[in-house]
């Protein structure tokens, strides 16, 4: 399934709205959800404001999903993310066994919004490149709705 579906559009809108709620709650403006092959939400999460710099929205959602389902069940799942998964989150997606990723904001666009803000250090490593390094395919769709996904980030980051 390589086409964008109505469910993809709906879930992506939900995750973009969740990213705004994350910002409104005092967290970094990122959100993610894992949705099973049957369409039910397995897990959703925002970035956590803590000393744990690995508490990205995708990592938090994947930890929740992986605590309930194994790789066989997650193979048919989709990770929806308000921004392109970073290298760490792409690796976690791969190892969790999630077979599909749909994201809004590209890493390149995010970098333009965050600049050199030390709160969001970036790696120039697209998630597609991380997934291409694996032994099994992970389908990736994105970027999508970048203008809308950018709104939660506007004025949030210090450009150092």
Automatic annotation (TrEMBL):
InterPro entries: CMP_dCMP_dom, Cytidine_deaminase-like. It comes from the Bacteria. One of its GO terms (molecular function) is tRNA-specific adenosine-34 deaminase activity. CDD domains: nucleoside_deaminase. Its EC number is 3.5.4.33. It holds the Pfam family dCMP_cyt_deam_1. It is an enzyme of class 3 (hydrolase). Keywords: Hydrolase. Residues 6-127 form the CMP/dCMP-type deaminase domain. Gene3D superfamilies: Cytidine Deaminase, domain 2. PANTHER family: CYTOSINE DEAMINASE FAMILY MEMBER (PTHR11079), TRNA-SPECIFIC ADENOSINE DEAMINASE (PTHR11079:SF202). This is Nucleoside deaminase. It comes from [Empedobacter] haloabium.
